[in-house]
Structure formats: structure tokens, C-alpha cells
Amino acid sequence: MTTLVLAEHNGQQIHNEVRHAVSAAQHWGQPVHLLVVGYQSEQIANQAAAIDGVSLVLHTDAQQFAHPLAEDVSKLIDTLVADYQVILAAHSSFSRNVLPRVAALADVAMISDVLEIQTDNRYVRAIYAGNVHTTIQSRDAKQILTVRGSKFSAADLNGQAEITDITAPEAFTKTRWLSESRIETDRPALNSAKVVVSGGRSLGSAEKFDALLNPLAEKLGAALGATRAAVDAGYAPNEIQVGQTGVTVAPELYFAVGVSGAVQHTAGMKDSRIVVAINQDPDAPIFQVADYGLVADLFDAVPTLTNALS
Amino acid sequence: MKILVAIKRVVDYNIKVGIKTDGSNVDIDGIKMSANPFDENAIEQAIRLKEQGKADEIVAVSIGSSANQDVLRHALAMGVDRALLVEHDAEVQSLEVAKLLQSVAEKEQPDLIILGKQAVDDDAGQAGQMLAAILNYPQGTFASELTIENGEAIVTREIDGGTETLALQLPAVVTADLRLNDPRFVKLPNLMQARKKPIETLSASELISELTPRLSLIKVAEPPQRKAGIKVDTVDALLQQLRTKEGIAL
Ligand SMILES: Cc1cc2nc3c(=O)[nH]c(=O)nc-3n(C[C@H](O)[C@H](O)[C@H](O)COP(=O)(O)OP(=O)(O)OC[C@H]3O[C@@H](n4cnc5c(N)ncnc54)[C@H](O)[C@@H]3O)c2cc1C
Ligand SMILES: Nc1ncnc2c1ncn2[C@@H]1O[C@H](COP(=O)(O)O)[C@@H](O)[C@H]1O
């Protein structure tokens, strides 16, 4: 039997997370196939073929996949499902949308956001906003899961897998794609950045959020993040919310600026290697997960810090 | 138009759950329970659609023991028209939830089904997509906007790095993000009235005979704790630590 990894991409570039998903897939010791769905996506298929440990790239190129819908992608995977014992992907908004649909079509109980894969279809995953880790065992013959990228190493890029084209089933016509809006940024992607600077509600306004955190992030080559309170207050876009219901990050260095440290926030950042917290309240819970805590007014500390950086 | 809203009863999100001493499960005896926060967004959106004249009936459904009546009363107090309890005393996982909701949908024939994007206890985030799959309905997950226009559901979805907008032919399944709306507070008189309203009850085993969860719980544990850090007094001291002790070039 074989393992299938669903590859996400943005039309130009295969996501870095896919390499982590491919190493997770090696657990089963079976050939790993990578599925690329897109439109005019030949370069993505080529990038996929270069990932070490992939023996075959299945490539579907069809107009309906210019903006892939869960309805269409799951229909496609359903035509392949019988050939695979394991189907997995990195835990992203794309796979979270698609794979539960695939699982239900295959009558399989899916496992979301796996932290560790053990023998005999046992998995460790986080529940209750990361407050508890559970070990569960699947009794299904087929395994369908998403994995947390940061918990698995990235596969190298020396591969030379074969690419084979497969045809898409007829498009699902009951859903129409209308539009999308993406924020353009020169900054590294939040979920793969080496440094992340996150701000909380205490920044007080969108203007101050930008004025204080942008120069710091700029100097650090960091991605910006935010708490839900900052997002709700309109200081930062929803896409950069870190936490239980937002993005999970695990950078080398994480700055939490004026962030209280609610569990829903720490669920998304506590795997960072080094955490620095700046908060004026010495009892703020964020200090319990911070390696370095600076008790200070952020409006003084952040500009001082930015200036002190070379 | 008729809307079905699915509500899970979960440990209140403000509470930090503990673990049983033998590690067999979480310890939630006597702990405050509430409607899953995302499901409150789902209820709120259904009520707004009704207030806009787009919907005429809202049915709330919860799967669980008779204790789940409290979250259904909360939904009634917020403004849903009917409440349905699918009684099942054992744990149900997302796939069984989807199958039970499918049977309910077949009985109730809703035009729109709204769920939460994830339950804050299991953090699975699956039931909506699974339900859409087995009904072969369009799905609009992680919705931060939802309107009904010309008989279609227009859904703006939160995706990595931005948003995307879809038009779904009805009947459809939508899952609510927290960004969808701010759920209204329940007024005491409404809660008093909701106490008197009937809750219709169905038994899960009547809807589906085979209801064994496929995922078995082996154990639960505390996640690895981060080592205690240190406090520094100044920005200089902070940089000193990061540069010399952690060896980061800054
Ligand atoms: C279902 C659910 C899911 C959620 N998911 C998420 C999620 O994914 N991510 C997330 O972040 N939150 C999430 N939340 C919200 C979470 O519970 C907290 O409310 C939120 O993280 C708090 O954000 P905050 O730290 O910016 O604000 P606050 O809690 O208001 O904290 C502000 C902090 O700033 C400090 N401060 C104030 N002024 C200054 C100053 N001048 N200088 C220095 N420090 C200062 C204060 O001491 C305080 O600690 C969720 C909530 C729910 C119910
Ligand atoms: N026991 C339940 N009863 C009613 N609805 C549920 C139940 N479990 C899950 N749901 C719905 O499915 C959504 C997603 O749940 P999950 O897949 O567990 O994350 C929730 O937000 C609810 O809307």
C-alpha cells in the first residue's frame, strides 16, 4: 500500500509545509505519492518532484482547480482513495477544508493536527487549546490525518520523482468561486518565519500597531502576528492571528508585545524556541511561557529595542 | 427558508481543564459547561438572517445527554424557534456527529445548516465538512461573512494569507469563524421564557444503529511545560541575553 500527501501551493510556489508533511509520511515506510492539483501548475509539479522521499507526483491540471474548492478536490481524491492506506497533509486552512470531506466520503474518522505519529495507528494531538495532549488510536483500516508541520523535519530537495498526469472528475457545479483577497507583503510567511513579532490589544490602534511593530519586524526580518483581541479591535488583519483558532507558529524567536498570554494565544506559539515577552504587568500569564520577560511599558521598550538593533 | 444550527456542549472556554490522576481522561466533573463559542456565532448569524427576512425558521440541534438541554435553552433564549436534542449518552466524534446531523437534516429539510468551525474541546474542526460530504452539499467553511442573495449563500472564508468568497447553491453547509459576528447577550426574561419552551427529543440509536467511535482514547497527559524563564530589567539586558546566551545575531 501507499501513502498519499496532498500538496498545497499558491499557484507559483509549493508550500514549505509540504516538505514537513512528506517526512511525516515516511513513518509508514511505504512509497509516498504527492498530489498536486492546480491550473497551469506544471512548475508546482516540478517542485513537488524535487522533494526527497517522494516516489511519484500525481498531477491534475484543470481549469476548475485555478481556485481549488474542497468539493472538487475531495471528489478527485475519492477516485484515488482505494489505492492508498494513508492520506495526509500539513495542517493548513486548505487541508482543513478538504480532508474532512475526503474522510467522510471514505467513511474514515479523521485525525486533525497530529503532533506525533506512533506505531499501531496511535497519534498524539492537542486538545483544549493545547492544555492537554491525548494519545488516540484509530481503528480504521485507512488513516486520514493532518500533521503540524513544525513537529516534523523538512524533507530535502534532492528528489527526482516521476510525474504522472491524472484527469479530474467533472466539476462540482453547486459552488462558485467569486473572489479572493490576499495581503501582499515582502515579509516571510507567518507559519514558516524564523522570527515572529506579535502584538496585542494594548497597542491601542491600527496606526500604533504598525508604527511600533513594523520597524521592529523590519529590523528582525520577522513576520508580524497578533492576538485575537488586536484582530477584533481592527489593529491587525485576521490572517495573522496566532493561536488556537488562528495560525500555529514555532519560530526560533517569538516576541510577544503587550500580549496577556491567554491559553488560546499560547496554544499557537508555545513551541517557539525562544520566547520574549514585553508586558507592563509583572503577573501577566505570558511570563510563564517566556524565556525572557521584560516588565516595561511597550511604548518605551519597543522603540528602544528597535533602535538598539543593528 | 429554514436554518438548522448545530450546538455542542463543551467545557466553558475560560476554564483550564485538569487531568484525572490515572491519566485516563480529562477531569471535567462538576465543571462549568457552555455552548461551544463558534456555535454561538452560528446561532447569532441564523437569527440575523431571520431578522433580515431571509429565514423564517431556525432549529437548534445538540447531540448528547439530557444535560445538553441547557445549551439548547441558551439557543432558545438567543432567539431560535425550536430546539432538538439527539440523545446519546456516550461520546460522539465528528464523523458520528455528521451522520446524526445528516439524519436530522433528512427529517427537517433545512435550506442552510450552520455549524461552528471547530469545537474548543476536541479542536477537531471536521463535522461541518463531513456533513457537507455525506449530503453532497456545497460547503463554506471558516465563514467570516454570510449573506443570502438570490437564493444563494454568499460566504467569505478565512484562508491562509487572506480571504476568499464563494457562492453556494442551497441547501448548503456553512461553518462559523469567530469573526462572523458578536453573539448577543441573553436577557434574563428571555431565559425565563426559554425555560418553558419544549425541547423535542430523538434518540441517537433510532437515527443510526451503528454508532461506535473509531478513535479510542489511550491516555491524556499534560503537555511538556516550557522551562521557567528569567526577567530582565532593561532592553540592553534583554539584548545581552539574546546575543551572548542564545547566540542570536541581532
Ligand atoms: C473560542 C476562543 C478562541 C480564541 N482564539 C484565540 C486565538 O487563536 N488567538 C488569540 O490570541 N486569542 C484567542 N482568543 C482570545 C483570548 O482568549 C484572549 O482574549 C486574547 O488572546 C487576549 O488578547 P491580548 O493579550 O491582546 O489582550 P488582553 O488580554 O487585553 O491583554 C493586554 C495585555 O497588554 C498589557 N499591556 C497593556 N498596556 C501595556 C503597555 N503600555 N505596555 C506593555 N504591556 C501593556 C496588559 O498588561 C495585558 O497583559 C480566543 C478566545 C475564544 C473564546
Ligand atoms: N455533540 C454535538 N452536537 C451538536 N453539534 C455538534 C456536536 N459536536 C460537534 N458539533 C458541531 O460541529 C462543529 C465542529 O465540531 P468538531 O468537528 O468536533 O470540531 C461544532 O462547532 C458544532 O457546531
UniProtKB/TrEMBL annotation, chain A:
<feature type="binding site">
    <location>
        <begin position="227"/>
        <end position="228"/>
    </location>
    <ligand>
        <name>FAD</name>
    </ligand>
</feature>
<comment type="similarity">
    <text>Belongs to the ETF alpha-subunit/FixB family.</text>
</comment>
<dbReference type="InterPro" id="IPR014729">
    <property type="entry name" value="Rossmann-like_a/b/a_fold"/>
</dbReference>
<comment type="function">
    <text>The electron transfer flavoprotein serves as a specific electron acceptor for other dehydrogenases. It transfers the electrons to the main respiratory chain via ETF-ubiquinone oxidoreductase (ETF dehydrogenase).</text>
</comment>
<dbReference type="GO" id="GO:0050660">
    <property type="term" value="F:flavin adenine dinucleotide binding"/>
</dbReference>
<feature type="domain" description="Electron transfer flavoprotein alpha/beta-subunit N-terminal">
    <location>
        <begin position="3"/>
        <end position="187"/>
    </location>
</feature>
<feature type="binding site">
    <location>
        <begin position="258"/>
        <end position="265"/>
    </location>
    <ligand>
        <name>FAD</name>
    </ligand>
</feature>
<keyword id="KW-0285">Flavoprotein</keyword>
<keyword id="KW-0249">Electron transport</keyword>
<dbReference type="GO" id="GO:0033539">
    <property type="term" value="P:fatty acid beta-oxidation using acyl-CoA dehydrogenase"/>
</dbReference>
<dbReference type="InterPro" id="IPR029035">
    <property type="entry name" value="DHS-like_NAD/FAD-binding_dom"/>
</dbReference>
<dbReference type="Pfam" id="PF01012">
    <property type="entry name" value="ETF"/>
</dbReference>
<protein>
    <recommendedName>
        <fullName>Electron transfer flavoprotein subunit alpha</fullName>
    </recommendedName>
</protein>
<feature type="binding site">
    <location>
        <position position="279"/>
    </location>
    <ligand>
        <name>FAD</name>
    </ligand>
</feature>
<dbReference type="GO" id="GO:0009055">
    <property type="term" value="F:electron transfer activity"/>
</dbReference>
<dbReference type="InterPro" id="IPR014731">
    <property type="entry name" value="ETF_asu_C"/>
</dbReference>
<dbReference type="InterPro" id="IPR014730">
    <property type="entry name" value="ETF_a/b_N"/>
</dbReference>
<keyword id="KW-0813">Transport</keyword>
<feature type="binding site">
    <location>
        <position position="201"/>
    </location>
    <ligand>
        <name>FAD</name>
    </ligand>
</feature>
<keyword id="KW-0274">FAD</keyword>
<feature type="binding site">
    <location>
        <begin position="241"/>
        <end position="245"/>
    </location>
    <ligand>
        <name>FAD</name>
    </ligand>
</feature>
<dbReference type="InterPro" id="IPR001308">
    <property type="entry name" value="ETF_a/FixB"/>
</dbReference>
UniProtKB/TrEMBL annotation, chain B:
<keyword id="KW-0813">Transport</keyword>
<dbReference type="InterPro" id="IPR014729">
    <property type="entry name" value="Rossmann-like_a/b/a_fold"/>
</dbReference>
<feature type="domain" description="Electron transfer flavoprotein alpha/beta-subunit N-terminal">
    <location>
        <begin position="23"/>
        <end position="211"/>
    </location>
</feature>
<protein>
    <recommendedName>
        <fullName>Electron transfer flavoprotein subunit beta</fullName>
    </recommendedName>
</protein>
<dbReference type="Pfam" id="PF01012">
    <property type="entry name" value="ETF"/>
</dbReference>
<dbReference type="InterPro" id="IPR033948">
    <property type="entry name" value="ETF_beta_N"/>
</dbReference>
<dbReference type="InterPro" id="IPR000049">
    <property type="entry name" value="ET-Flavoprotein_bsu_CS"/>
</dbReference>
<dbReference type="InterPro" id="IPR012255">
    <property type="entry name" value="ETF_b"/>
</dbReference>
<comment type="function">
    <text>The electron transfer flavoprotein serves as a specific electron acceptor for other dehydrogenases. It transfers the electrons to the main respiratory chain via ETF-ubiquinone oxidoreductase (ETF dehydrogenase).</text>
</comment>
<comment type="similarity">
    <text>Belongs to the ETF beta-subunit/FixA family.</text>
</comment>
<keyword id="KW-0249">Electron transport</keyword>
<dbReference type="GO" id="GO:0033539">
    <property type="term" value="P:fatty acid beta-oxidation using acyl-CoA dehydrogenase"/>
</dbReference>
<comment type="subunit">
    <text>Heterodimer of an alpha and a beta subunit.</text>
</comment>
<dbReference type="InterPro" id="IPR014730">
    <property type="entry name" value="ETF_a/b_N"/>
</dbReference>
<dbReference type="GO" id="GO:0009063">
    <property type="term" value="P:amino acid catabolic process"/>
</dbReference>
<dbReference type="GO" id="GO:0009055">
    <property type="term" value="F:electron transfer activity"/>
</dbReference>
